[in-house]
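re: that chain from earlier
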Amino acid sequence: MAKQMSREEMQKIRKDMIENSRTSLENVVYQDVMGANQLRTNPFKYGEYGLGAGERKYESFSQDEKIRKMKDDIFAQRQNRGKALGVYGEPVYPTNYDISLNIAEQVEQHKQIVPLKVLEEIVTGLAGDMGFSFTVPEHLKSISMAEISMKQQPGAKLTEKENEAIAVYQRLSDAYNRAVALRIAQPGYFSDINEFGRKLTEKYAPKKRQEG
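^ sequence. v structure.
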């Protein structure tokens, strides 16, 4: 018979899950991938220069070592799955789309695991200097969407507090997506001009003499 976990053990597991989700939501690579995709899929929301910054960031993923490592890991997993089942041939090497989808799904799961207070802190850390100042009401701070989902039964009616928590979550989730997009768009506003200047400077820079 399986041993029943103590309250302390369950609390530790929940604490570890929340910390892992927080780390993932604060992961710069995850934020870059989410931000670049937000900029590319919502061009009217972020404007021409935001779209341009998103396109340049998205294209840079092919050279990013951390993203390349993610692609290699996914490719190896696909190979191992095929070999285990006796499948002939080689799987397709993961694309930027595959990585984006994988990360987007993880981010949405992690958003639901952390309490609203933690999600607010993450968004404030990302967008506090962009004008974000939303504060989660005290009575909702400890609630997470995962907890509400676990309590929901078919046909069950949510309490007023739970409905308020869902409304707050939806806005914080959207704020996170906006923040990671603006994090790329704002520094990237002049990136096309800066890149032109860099190439021009390189063109006329004194060439290093080769030692012979």
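The chain has a mean pLDDT of 89.
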